[in-house]
Amino acid sequence: MTLNRMMAGFISAWTLILTACGGGGLEGGDYSSNAPASPEPTYYGKPTDMDAAQSVTVTLPAKFLYRGLSFTPGSSTNGLTSVVSAANAIPIAFAEFHIYDASGTRIQQGETTTQGIASFMIPKTAGTYTFKVFSRAYNDYLKVSVLADIYANTPHYAAKTITITSDNVASGSKDMSADPVYAEANESISSRIEGGAFNIMYNILLANEYIRRNISKNNGGTPSVNPNLWWVADKVTVFWKAGFNPYSYFGSNTPLSFYSPGERKLYILGGVNGDVKSSDTDHFDDSVILHEYGHFLEDVYGNSGSPGGSHTGNFVIDARLSWSEGWANYFQAAVLSGANAAYNSADESRAPTDPRYHYYVDTYGYRASGNTAGVSISFNLWQDGTAASYDNTSADLAGTGTFREVSVSRALYKATRKDDAQYEATKYGGGVSFTNIWKTFAGEDTSGHKKGTPLTSSLVNTTTYPVPSVGLFNYLLSVNIGGATAKWDAILSEEKQTKTTKDYAYYLGSTTCSDVTFTVGAPETKMSSRDPVTRSNQQVNNDFYLLYHGGGSGTLSLEYTSSTVGPSSEPLNLDLILYKKDYVYFEDAYWKAGYSSEYLAKQSRQTASQATESVSLNGLSAGFYIVNVKIDAYEKAEYKLKSTATYRLKKDGVVICGTER
Q1: Could you give the CA distance from residue 103 to residue 56 in angstroms, rounded to a whole number?
Q2: Which PROSITE patterns did the record assign (predicted)?
Q3: What is the distance between the alpha carbons of residues 303 and 646, in angstroms, rounded to a whole number?
Q4: CA 339, CA 115: separation in Å to the nearest integer?
Q5: Where a domain ends, among 458, 476, 500?
Q6: How many domains does the structure of the chain reveal?
């Protein structure tokens, strides 16, 4: 597992290199790090057939409790609050349950209904039985396991004792509708806080149901084997335990929730060193859970090209990272807005009046006497990008939104709200359907295109579109919409985005074009005061192109001229870098310090301004590469970079130019 490719949630105030989403007297620490991992226990969800005349039919509701969220933008009292009342507990739907007799032998099993009802038959034998409902499901509605750790791989559970009396034996039934089993959320009642596991499971169910409803694969709520009528996501495994930081599995004490690409595993933060009262926790942070699940969907159904790494919501970052994080931020708000609308029988593309549903909200601790608690980060997706506190675009150059994750999130959310919904006096939602979002993201429709046979106009068509970005997504989305999009266009303009790959991974497939100009350079800066290196501005100091190399020999060259503009400026020094397709950007600070990078295929970095930089393509495997034309801005003050540089790229002496594929 490569940690720098873990998809983490939004950075909290105290996190650093990999960014966290997230937040006593509980379990904490990697208590079995030397133990070999056991396989997840076999799933038993199909009931054992029994003769009704010889059985007692038991009806038992299963519900989970959770901590509510108080959230009003700008309020000092925001954060998780007390545990909701039993009247507001949420049904545990589609979950596996088991029945055990007094000796501990499993005698029956099944799955709860949509309403969280466990209905089952057991033999007509008076006595005491134990009911357990588990934090996992594997059926036509939901495929998820929420497990306590990476070693035993056992699910969480809520349990209840059932007493079968002689009267139950005589009647053949026992109705426990007034006495549900509850998964607790108060650590004083249950140190396991198993309600957290079921809240994670519930959010993943909400995501599946949202997608089903909004891509017309819900079939009236009845599962179908026809993939054009019904959709359910592949299984995801989630690791979570109350009071435990899952990043400690990987040797770090930074509190973190994250997704591990390629493994289909989510890790949700349960607290730190056994503490859930004041520490960062994410099991009741719906935004964080859905954000990480958005990364799972990107990995399994989309095109996950993100290199991972730091992101703060106020920095120009790698376009692939900004797309990945922006998608995940958007997805959580879309699901929560949709679930709220569905509950109220409203249009799912509306803009909810309750800001909770169009914000990303990450809490720490919960509000109670003696606790430190509140909201570590929140930002609004239903907002003018030029007035935003995160990734404000007012002073940005055109195209900068491609490199800003919160801008990506806002653009997607605003684009998918009704076109008569206003977020400012003269600014409206884009009216883009989630159906078209999903077509573009996953290549799926109701006409036979699905995961294995996607639409060509989708990110999943990696033969043509190997490197994702919001520019590519917008380009393909416009193809799938195929009509007028004036209100969406206005949103993109406000967010400094376009419907083109010109700002990132423009395909070098033409030989007719004008020279390209850098109008100014930008000093390298740190993302935060704790950042170990200064970083090159991905938009101002860099141009990125997609190159297909057919193998064999050849030369790639950069020809340029530079002119000073300011009185103390210097000519810009351009470098030519050829990266492998799945690269991690190699900052100048590392290069200057003598480090190497496995992602560099070739490079030409003259130490002074030269007319030409060139690299040999000899020995390179056939395939896609990223060409990076960059300004060397390392340790240069802003006044020195107030210059222009005009360049052209050539392959074997022939000019090559960017174009859409």
Answers
A1: 19
A2: PROKAR_LIPOPROTEIN (PS51257)
A3: 33
A4: 16
A5: 500
A6: 2
Structure tokens that stand for 59 in this block? 């009806």
Residues 397 and 281 in one domain: yes
Q: Which of 644, 638, 635, 642 is nearest to 588 (CA)?
A: 635
Contact (Cβ atoms closer than 8 angstroms) between residue 55 and residue 339: no
Q: Are residues 491 and 580 in the same domain?
A: no
Distance of CA 651 to the CA centre of its chain: 38
- Which H, E and C letters describe 593-633, residue by residue? CCCCCCCEEEEECCCCCCCEEEEECCCCCCEEEEEEEEECC
- Spatial neighbors of 635 by CB under 8 A, at least 6 apart, are 524, 534
Residues 63, 160 within the same domain: yes
CA distances from 557 to 32, 456, 548 (A): 55, 32, 15
Q: What is the pTM of this model?
A: 0.94
Burial profile 563-587: b = 16 or more Cβ within 10 angstroms, e = fewer: eeeeeebbbbbbbbbbbbbebbbbb
Instruction: Please tell me the number of Cα atoms within 13 Å of 340 on its side-chain side.
Output: 17
- The DSSP 8-state label assigned to residue 242 in this structure reads T
H helix runs in 457-573, sequence order: 470-481, 486-494
Side chain identity at residue 156, one-letter code: H
Is 511:656 a contact under the CB 8 Å cutoff?
yes
The CA distance from 176 to 164, in Å, is 11
Greatest alpha-carbon pair distance for the chain in Å reads 99
**Could you report the per-residue pLDDT of 531-563, keeping only the tens digit for each?**
999 999 999 999 999 999 999 999 999 999 999
Element (H, E) at 408: helix 405-415
End-to-end CA distance of the chain: 33
Q: Contact, 269 vs 23, CB < 8 A? A: yes
Task: Tokens 């990364």: give the residue.
Answer: 295
What does pLDDT average to over the chain? 94
Residue ending a domain, among 500, 531, 548, is: 500
In one letter, which amino acid is 365? G
User: In whole angstroms, what is the distance from residue 544 CA to residue 636 CA?
Assistant: 22
Choice among 68-72, 109-113, 333-337, 368-372 with the minimum mean pLDDT: 368-372
Rg (CA), the chain: 27
Structural domain containing residue 579? 516-659
Q: What is the pLDDT of residues 631-646, one digit of tens each?
A: 999 999 999 999 999 9
pLDDT of amino acid 35: 60
3-state secondary structure 80-114: EEEECCHHHCEECCCCEEEEECCCCCEEEEEECCC
Q: What is the band of 288 on the pLDDT scale with cuts at 50, 70, 90?
A: very high
Selection from 624, 612, 611, 623 nearest residue 555 by Cα: 612
**Residue 507 forms part of a structural domain:** no
Q: What sign has the CA pseudo-torsion 249, 250, 253, 258?
A: negative
Query: Residue 637 in 3-state DSSP?
Result: coil
Write the CA distances from 247 to 19, 115, 193, 222, 256, integer angstroms: 11, 35, 20, 39, 6
Q: What is the DSSP letter of 17?
A: S
What 8-state DSSP symbol labels residue 9? -
